[in-house]
Amino acid sequence: MKIYFDGCSWTHGCELQEPENTRWSKLVSNHYGAEEYNISENGSCNRRIVRNLLEHNLDDYDIIIIQMSMNIRQEYFDGDNWQRVSFSSSNLKDASHQEFFMHYYSEIYHSEYGHTDDKIYYTLIKKLLEKKKHLVVSIDRGKSQSKLPLDMDLSLMLDDSMKRRDALKSLGKTPPYSRNNKDYRCKGMHPNEEGSQILSHYIISALESEEFKNDAICSHHNGWWSKLDHDQWNKDLIKERIKQEREKGLTKPK
């Protein structure tokens, strides 16, 4: 048995001391006695995730689990390699490329573009996986795929005290359980080891129970997160990151 995983830092196991042994994808694979095939990358974009699906023979995998990423992330091919791009492009080696993307995000990019991309990539992912056992999940509380019927939002699920309590009980953890969301996350807010155990329980339960999956918390549901202005949040974040990059002297002000 072989399970395919792709996504960004939440699936890669960012901030874990031994991600190859403690990330939720490994725990899910261990549960099924399956080989873990995890090609997620920190900062991955949805374009890369779909590109990977197109480049693989999906018949080689028994289960496929896709974690969609933030829709403001992109990639481009520089002639040799694919380069990851987001509102902060300081990872790019070419200064002219950095300046281009800083200008793009500050002057050209619009949230409608990101929402349209979400629909395109989600539709393609579902079409590619329609004959496979699969899950498509999110991690950013509706900032990106807020109107798409994904199977669950891992971040919202991890922060829900009732869902978390049930998972901890099922995992055999001894109460009392902390009600502080931060106790299940690393410093940078990625899931820590216990948080990863909880997420693995959610994923396994969703794969094995249609009732659990239907009851999972999703970003397209009505909740406190649905009342937030995510588009403005993205605009403010882009503005602040670009300001930081320019203050570091990586690009020239307009």
What does the model show?
With 254 residues, this protein is of the alpha/beta class. The chain has a single domain, classed as Rossmann fold (3-Layer(aba) Sandwich). The strands form two sheets. It has a five-stranded parallel sheet with strand order 2-1-3-6-7. The model has no long low-confidence stretch (mean pLDDT 90).
Task: Explain briefly what this protein structure is.
The chain is an alpha/beta fold and 254 residues long. The protein has a single domain (2-72, 109-221), classed as 3-Layer(aba) Sandwich (Rossmann fold).
How many β strands by DSSP? 7
What ranges have pLDDT less than 50 throughout 5 or more consecutive residues? none
Helix content: 40-55%
- Counting helices, strands and paired strands, the structural category is alpha/beta
Task: Give the biggest sheet.
Answer: 5 strands, parallel
CATH architecture: 3-Layer(aba) Sandwich
